Structure formats: structure tokens, C-alpha cells
């Protein structure tokens, strides 16, 4: 009886517990037609006498926690979909399939108002593209740790970066193909470069917050310009929103190096904007009045603060026919960089690498990045639309560099002892890019479409009065005490003032026609078109050497006003190779067909391009090739096959032929030229364009929402690749471009994104293998002496890393918590930085990993605070020669070098950088 009573009590307690136990009720909201999850849907239930609401996560799921078991009425709302009403109860999760609301909108209205700023939009752009492409949307950029377009690009699969002096990304390298093999577009239009020697565009000039989307294009169709063996970068700039929108952002930042280092400043305001030769009559002789002492006057600044501002406003008026947007951005940052550099040469007795001197370098760099653009799009009617885009980008840089160079040969015993050369260099540099594009889209017949663009672009760079103060001193040991004693600083005879100015101007026109037909049950788009570009490039350079009036008494006490100079070459350097004019005319035409049949889409055709390059250099008339011209044409076929397996999966197979033109400065037969180069440069008038065949195969899987899996392989076969190498010409060694026979480049990519409610992982990995065989000089012992011979060596292409990987851990909740966070880690393995003409003496950049973090929290609906931290690991930039250090010709120990280990060449450290800001959105 007692046992039965006990069981009765336990049964009742268990039953009451079951009714009182709290449970979690969950479900998922999806699109009824596609099955894709809907993030941000509002789900409301009636529980315990009151309403409770949640929003669906990134994978469409939702959950109500700690509710009594039972059944609850549920209501689901999502913009653009019919409301859902039902019940939610304990048991299997509820799957809510929402039906889209029917709206009578013209197709042109839908495409014209498409929001390019969301991550979902970027995925759809990649899926719809008829090329192999990866995109990053504005919202993803906004919550990332990156501030410039260059740094954003490094998050995309297959992309690594070449960095500027201050450690920020500058030039992208796509799939191991150097920056010379890539071109840059703004809204699909190629833009010129502010570089005075090269074609490629530095992407650090573009503020990332001016973009709607960044696209990395990895294959070409005939309607795209054909000089992109590596690929293309397309910046889709901000477009007019559907409704009035105002966005503002302000932030302050700090570089942790300033916690224990001061920032060195100089005043450049008194310097001339152009060289004395350029601003005066022919034959003018410059005097010291043309070179104010302010450029040699240095001060310090404690704890400089970085600042950032941007503002955009836009909307649509005139019954939504006219869209207008104006956006501007300003970023001002300070960096201190500490570096050490070794000069190296090859030992002619055994071919070993040896170091000859060590330089200690310190940089203080202020960089002001600004940009402004406006865009108008006018829909005249459903068949005609006209757009006007005007953009201006500016990157101003103030750099101070101090350098201490110690000769390690002739018995010197290491850094800081023996004869020492010191120098202080200052410059103010301004890079600018201006682009205006007037374009139109017209349906001129029921099946005939035309689009056109008229473009004017100009890029310029001005670096006036770069001032280098050269000094000598020495450090020796006191014979009695053994202490190091430094001699006074003396002015030597090589202080200089340099003026560099150049511009690159494009006038271009594009015209395309597309005619749509039906062939059986297939749809065919026939396209023809062409373009013409006139490019004019002008470069001027002058260098003036200043010598102390009386070298024997010209000690330097830190105040340049106590010293006197005379101008050694008052006429400047009118015959320097950086004084040149070049004109390039490119004409192109193409024919292309796009066939859509059931699950297949085939795009193919050919492009014809004709290039006419001519130049006139200011080198002396006795120099062969002072003037010259190059004329050539190319026929570039391409084709892409896309097979849609189902609504979530697709396969792409593509082939395209492409070229890479030599840079302007490379074909001018100069010697010297760039005074800031680590090695003396020489031009090559016989340089040929590079041609390549490119193959791609990619599998795409988009399971739902923002999730994706992209896996592909690629292969590139290059003929006459252009690389820079140290080469012997007579008795001198020059750093010069050359064609190196044939090369191959292949690999595979994997790009994965996965979200679980608020948490996500975005990762990509690219393996690249390239090979090129070139002749190298080998020194060897003969028993009676040394000799040399040429041997072939196979190596990777310059700038190609075998492994490039990115992993980002994400937290994303725009709806309930208003919180976004990202921890990003990128890794790039070693790559060749400088090609040597000697066997095994190439200079390699060591592999590196960089970690960055960002977080954003919204409040009061229209405001958000955010923080960004860059280079958390203080990852250095390091160069080495992969040959054991032998201390050849040096007595004593040398800092940074270890016997038997790779020969150390360079190390730059940048420190971490912090940013804290607030945003407003209307």
C-alpha cells in the first residue's frame, strides 16, 4: 500500500512538473517559391497574457525561450510578403513559407531600384554574372575592419596585397598575377593611373565608404577590355537610394607606436609647387632663394590623432524619374614605421649572397585620403535612361624619413660603428584621380538595345620639392675607455631637392548594340560594339644638388639655418628619363553571342584591339630610342559555359585570351631615372607585350540565405611575361624589365560562407603554383680561380604566393541586438619580391599573417557606435635571400644576421591602429 501511494505521488508530481516546465519553441521563415531563408522577419506570439516578438536570424530561424509547454497563436510579417497567421506549439519546429505580395511594377523600375549595398545583392550579382566574379557589398564593407578599397580587396578569395611604405594595402595581386596584369574600373569604365611610370592604379586612393559594391572579375568576355590576364577590379560607386537617405560618420583613431615614439613633422608650405626650371624662362639658373630651408626643418608632435568623416545624401525626385546622390569622405591618419635594410651583392668567388651595409630607417607618415562623387540617373521613359557620374579622389601624403647607413666592409664591425652616412628626407605628395562619365541606355526597337558612354578621366601626381639632407659622421671606440664616441655630423655634397610631376589623361567612347532573338526554344542575344581611347601621358622631373658653401666647417647642429649651401646644377635635370611624353591610342571592336537554352548559358565571341604607342623622351639625342613608336594588334577570343544544375547549384567553364601592355616608362631607353629606387634602373625599348590563355572551372553552391560554397580551378599560360630583374649591362648592374620566355600559373580556390542564426564563418583559401625558367649567372671555383656560366633556373613568378587564406568569425544581428562583430585573419605565404640575375639570389618576402577586428552597435534606431583595430599582431614586412648568411668580408657580429640561416635583407614594423566612431542614418 505504501509503495502504491508513493508511486501515485511521484506520478502526480511528474505530471505537474511537465506542465510547469519551461520549453523553447523554434521555427524557420523561408520564401515559399525559392525556399531561401528570410532574415529579419518579425515573429509575434501571445504568451502568458502578453505579446512577445523576435526576429529571424541570418538562416531564417527563430526561437522563443523559457515558455510553458502548449500551443500559441503566431503571426509572421516580412516586408514584401503576405502576413502569416498560425499556431506554434511544443514538438517539431514550425516552418513558415511566406508568399510574395503581387505588385504591378515595370521591369525597368525593379532593376533601377535594386539595392546594391546588401550582402544578398552581392551574391546575386555573382550568380547572374556571365564571368567568374567575387563581390563584396557596401554593408559588408561598412562593418569590416577596412577603410580603403585596397584593404577590402584582400578579403576576397585569391587576392593578396602589395603594401605601401606605411603598411596599408596598395596594389592587389589576383591569383598570383602581379599588379601589372590587372586593370581598375569605376562603374565598369577603365581609369588612368597617377603613377609616373606604370599603368596600374593604387587602390589606397579610394575610400571604401564611397562604394556600393566591390567586384573582383577573374575572367573576361569579348565586351570587356582585353588587358587583364590576372583579372580586373570594378568599383560600383554609391547609387541614388529609393527614398531620401542621409548618412554621416565621424571617428577618431590612434596608432599604438605613438605611446613611445613622437611623430616627426615638417612645414612644406613655403616650397614651390613646380621646379625652378618649369616656372622660369629657358636657361634659368636656380639659386638658394628657390629652395627655402623649411623643408630641412623638422619638429615633433606628441600623440597625433587620426580622424575620419564621411557624409552622403541622396534620393529620387520628379516622380522617381531622377535619382541624385552626393557623397564625400575624408580620412587623416598618422603612422610611424621602423625599418632596417641591408644592401646585398653576390660574392664573385663562390656565388654566395653577402651583405655590404646596414641601414636603420624610420618613417613618420601622414596620409590624407579624400573622395567625393555625385551621380545623376534620369529615366526619360521605360525605354530610355541617361546617367552622369562625376568622381574625384585625392591622396595627400607627408613623409619624413631618417636613414642611418653603416658600411660593413673594410673592417667595420656592425651597425652604429665606423663611417656612417645619415640622411633626412621629406616630401609632400598629392595623387589625384578625376572621372566623369555620361552614359545612356536605349531600347531603339522592340528587340534592339543600345548603350553608350562618353568618358573623360585624368590622373595626376605632384611631388614638389622632395628634400634630402645628407650628412656624414663616424663612431669609434675610445682607446682608453673602450666607449663608443661619435664624431660631429657634417654636411656632405649630395643633399638634393627633387620635383616630380606627371599626368595621365584619357578620352574614351564606348558603343554597344544587343539584338534579342529566339532560336527554336533558345534565347539568343547578339552583341556588337567597340571603343576608342586616346591616352596622353606627361612626366617631368628635376633634381638639384646642394653643396655646403665650405665643407670643412659645415657641421650640423640640428638647425639648418646655421648652415649655408650653393646650388651645384642650377639648370636642373632636363635630360633625365623621367621627362617624357607618351601617347597611346587603343581602338577595339567585338562580336559576341549569349545563348540561353534550358539549363545552359553559353557566352562567346572575339575581340579585336589595336594599340598605337609613341613617345618622346628628353634623354640626349645620342641615346638610341629617344623617340619611338610601337604598333600591334590582337585578336582575343573568349567563351563561357554556365550549366545550372538546380536552383542552388551551377557549373562554370570559361576560356579567354588576354594581353598585358608594357608600362610607358619601361620602354623608354633610360639609365637611372628613379632616384628613390633601391637599385639603378634601366629601360628596355625591345620589351614586348605579354599574351596569355586563361582557363577556369568553378562549381557554385548557394544552399540558402547568405551561405555559399564556391570551388574552382584555374590555369594560365603566359607568353613573354614581363618581370624586373637585376641584370649585368657592361660593367654595371641595373634593375630593368625584360621578357622571360614562357610561364604557367595554375591553382584552385575554395570560398565558404556559413551562418547559424547570428553567428557565421567566412573563409577562403587559394593555392597557386607558377613556374618560369630563366637564365641565371653561377659563379664557381675552378681550382686556379673563379669563373662563371649561365644556368637555367625554374622559379615562381614575381609576386606569386603559393598559399593565400582568409578566415573571418562573424556575429551579425541587425534586428534585435543591433550588434555586428568581425574577427578577420589573413595569411599570405612567401613570394619573390625581387628577381636576381644570380643563381639562388632572388629576394623573397617572408610569409605573414595579419589579424584585424571590428565591432558595431546600433542605438536609438538611427545611430551606431563602432570600433576597428588593425594589425593586432603587429605583423612585420620582411625580406630575405634564401641562402645561408656566411659573414663574407665582415669582421664581428652583425645585427639581425645569424650564421647558417637565410640572409636577412629588410624588416618594417607598423604597430597596431585603433579607430572609434559614431554613425548616423536617416
From TrEMBL:
The keyword Transmembrane applies. Keywords: Cell outer membrane, Membrane, Receptor, Signal, TonB box, Transmembrane, Transmembrane beta strand, Transport. One of its GO terms (cellular component) is cell outer membrane. PROSITE patterns: TONB_DEPENDENT_REC_3. It comes from the Bacteria. It is found in: Cell outer membrane. Residues 421-872 form the TonB-dependent receptor-like beta-barrel domain. Residues 1-18 form the signal peptide. Residues 131-232 form the TonB-dependent receptor plug domain. It is a multi-pass membrane protein. InterPro entries: Beta-barrel_TonB, Beta-barrel_TonB_sf, CarboxyPept-like_regulatory, Plug_dom, Plug_dom_sf, TonB-dep_rcpt-like. Belongs to the TonB-dependent receptor family. PANTHER family: PLUG DOMAIN-CONTAINING PROTEIN (PTHR40980), TONB-DEPENDENT RECEPTOR-LIKE BETA-BARREL DOMAIN-CONTAINING PROTEIN (PTHR40980:SF4). This is TonB-dependent receptor. It comes from Chitinophaga silvisoli.
Amino acid at each position: 500500500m505504501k509503495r502504491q501511494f508513493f508511486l501515485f505521488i511521484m506520478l502526480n508530481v511528474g505530471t505537474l512538473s511537465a506542465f510547469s516546465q519551461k520549453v523553447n519553441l523554434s521555427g524557420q521563415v523561408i520564401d515559399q517559391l525559392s525556399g531561401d531563408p528570410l532574415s529579419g522577419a518579425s515573429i509575434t506570439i501571445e504568451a502568458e497574457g502578453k505579446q512577445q516578438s523576435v526576429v529571424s536570424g541570418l538562416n531564417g530561424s527563430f526561437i522563443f525561450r523559457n515558455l510553458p509547454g502548449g500551443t500559441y497563436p503566431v503571426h509572421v510579417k516580412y516586408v514584401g510578403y503576405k502576413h502569416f497567421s498560425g499556431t506554434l506549439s511544443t514538438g517539431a519546429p514550425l516552418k513558415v513559407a511566406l508568399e510574395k505580395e503581387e505588385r504591378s511594377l515595370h521591369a525597368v523600375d525593379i532593376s533601377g531600384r535594386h539595392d546594391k549595398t546588401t550582402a544578398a545583392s552581392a551574391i546575386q550579382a555573382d550568380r547572374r554574372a556571365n564571368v567568374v566574379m567575387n563581390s563584396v557589398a557596401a554593408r559588408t564593407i561598412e562593418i569590416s575592419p577596412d577603410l580603403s578599397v585596397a584593404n577590402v580587396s584582400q578579403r576576397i578569395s585569391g587576392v593578396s596585397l602589395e603594401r605601401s611604405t606605411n603598411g596599408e594595402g596598395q596594389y592587389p595581386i589576383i591569383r598570383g598575377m602581379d599588379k601589372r596584369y590587372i586593370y581598375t574600373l569605376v562603374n565598369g569604365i577603365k581609369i588612368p593611373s597617377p603613377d609616373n611610370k606604370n599603368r596600374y592604379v593604387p587602390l589606397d586612393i579610394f575610400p571604401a565608404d564611397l562604394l556600393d559594391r566591390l567586384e573582383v572579375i577573374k575572367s573576361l568576355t569579348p565586351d570587356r577590355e582585353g588587358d587583364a590576364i590576372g583579372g580586373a577590379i570594378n568599383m560600383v560607386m554609391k547609387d541614388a537610394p529609393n527614398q531620401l537617405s542621409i548618412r554621416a560618420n565621424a571617428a577618431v583613431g590612434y596608432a599604438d607606436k605613438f605611446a613611445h615614439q613622437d611623430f616627426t613633422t615638417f612645414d612644406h608650405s613655403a616650397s614651390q609647387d613646380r621646379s625652378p626650371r618649369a616656372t622660369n624662362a629657358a636657361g634659368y639658373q636656380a639659386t638658394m632663394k628657390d629652395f627655402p630651408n623649411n623643408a630641412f626643418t623638422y619638429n615633433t608632435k606628441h600623440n597625433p590623432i587620426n580622424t575620419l568623416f564621411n557624409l552622403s545624401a541622396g534620393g529620387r525626385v520628379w516622380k522617381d524619374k531622377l535619382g541624385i546622390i552626393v557623397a564625400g569622405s575624408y580620412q587623416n591618419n598618422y603612422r610611424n614605421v621602423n625599418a632596417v635594410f641591408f644592401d646585398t651583392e653576390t660574392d664573385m668567388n663562390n656565388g654566395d649572397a653577402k651583405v655590404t651595409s646596414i641601414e636603420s630607417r624610420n618613417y613618420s607618415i601622414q596620409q590624407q585620403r579624400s573622395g567625393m562623387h555625385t551621380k545623376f540617373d534620369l529615366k526619360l521613359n521605360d525605354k530610355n535612361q541617361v546617367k552622369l557620374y562625376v568622381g574625384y579622389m585625392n591622396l595627400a601624403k607627408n613623409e619624413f624619413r631618417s636613414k642611418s647607413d653603416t658600411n660593413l666592409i673594410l673592417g667595420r664591425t656592425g651597425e652604429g660603428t665606423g663611417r656612417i652616412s645619415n640622411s633626412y628626407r621629406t616630401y609632400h605628395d598629392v595623387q589625384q584621380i578625376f572621372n566623369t562619365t555620361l552614359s545612356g541606355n536605349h531600347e531603339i526597337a522592340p528587340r534592339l538595345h543600345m548603350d553608350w558612354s562618353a568618358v573623360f578621366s585624368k590622373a595626376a601626381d605632384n611631388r614638389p620639392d622632395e628634400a634630402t639632407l645628407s650628412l656624414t659622421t663616424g663612431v669609434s671606440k675610445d682607446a682608453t675607455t673602450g666607449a663608443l664616441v661619435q664624431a660631429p655630423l657634417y654636411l656632405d655634397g649630395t643633399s638634393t631637392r627633387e620635383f616630380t610631376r606627371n599626368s595621365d589623361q584619357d578620352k574614351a567612347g564606348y558603343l554597344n548594340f544587343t539584338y534579342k532573338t529566339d532560336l527554336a526554344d533558345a534565347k539568343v542575344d547578339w552583341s556588337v560594339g567597340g571603343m576608342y581611347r586616346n591616352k596622353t601621358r606627361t612626366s617631368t622631373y628635376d633634381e638639384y644638388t646642394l653643396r655646403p658653401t665650405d665643407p670643412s666647417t659645415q657641421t650640423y647642429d640640428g638647425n639648418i639655418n646655421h648652415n649655408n649651401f650653393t646650388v651645384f646644377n642650377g639648370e636642373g635635370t632636363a635630360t633625365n628619363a623621367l621627362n617624357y611624353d607618351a601617347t597611346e591610342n587603343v581602338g577595339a571592336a567585338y562580336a559576341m553571342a549569349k545563348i540561353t537554352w534550358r539549363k545552359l548559358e553559353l557566352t562567346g565571341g572575339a575581340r579585336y584591339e589595336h594599340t598605337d604607342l609613341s613617345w618622346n623622351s628628353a634623354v640626349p639625342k645620342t641615346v638610341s630610342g629617344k623617340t619611338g613608336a610601337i604598333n600591334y594588334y590582337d585578336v582575343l577570343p573568349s567563351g563561357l559555359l554556365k550549366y545550372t544544375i538546380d536552383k542552388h547549384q551551377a557549373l562554370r567553364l570559361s576560356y579567354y585570351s588576354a594581353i598585358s601592355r608594357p608600362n610607358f616608362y619601361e620602354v623608354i631607353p633610360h639609365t637611372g631615372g628613379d632616384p628613390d629606387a633601391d637599385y639603378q634602373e634601366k629601360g628596355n625599348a625591345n620589351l614586348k607585350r605579354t599574351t596569355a590563355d586563361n582557363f577556369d572551372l568553378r562549381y557554385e553552391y548557394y544552399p540558402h540565405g547568405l551561405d555559399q560554397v564556391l570551388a574552382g580551378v584555374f590555369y594560365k599560360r603566359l607568353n613573354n611575361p614581363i618581370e624586373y630583374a637585376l641584370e649585368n649591362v657592361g660593367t654595371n648592374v641595373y634593375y630593368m624589365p625584360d621578357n622571360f620566355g614562357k610561364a604557367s600559373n595554375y591553382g584552385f580556390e575554395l570560398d565558404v560562407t556559413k551562418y547559424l542564426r547570428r553567428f557565421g564563418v567566412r573563409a577562403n583559401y587559394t593555392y597557386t603554383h607558377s613556374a618560369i625558367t630563366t637564365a641565371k649567372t653561377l659563379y664557381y671555383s675552378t681550382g686556379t680561380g673563379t669563373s662563371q656560366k649561365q644556368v637555367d633556373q625554374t622559379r615562381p613568378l614575381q609576386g606569386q604566393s603559393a598559399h593565400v587564406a582568409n578566415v573571418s568569425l562573424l556575429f551579425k544581428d541587425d534586428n534585435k541586438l543591433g550588434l555586428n562583430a568581425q574577427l578577420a585573419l589573413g595569411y599570405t605565404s612567401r613570394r619573390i619580391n625581387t628577381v636576381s640575375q644570380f643563381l639562388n639570389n632572388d629576394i623573397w618576402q617572408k610569409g605573414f599573417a595579419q589579424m584585424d577586428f571590428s565591432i558595431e552597435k546600433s542605438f536609438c534606431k538611427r545611430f551606431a557606435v563602432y570600433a576597428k583595430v588593425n594589425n593586432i599582431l603587429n605583423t612585420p614586412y620582411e625580406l630575405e635571400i634564401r641562402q645561408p648568411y656566411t659573414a663574407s668580408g665582415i669582421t664581428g657580429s652583425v645585427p639581425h644576421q645569424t650564421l647558417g640561416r637565410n640572409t636577412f635583407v629588410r624588416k618594417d614594423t607598423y604597430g597596431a591602429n585603433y579607430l572609434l566612431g559614431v554613425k548616423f542614418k536617416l
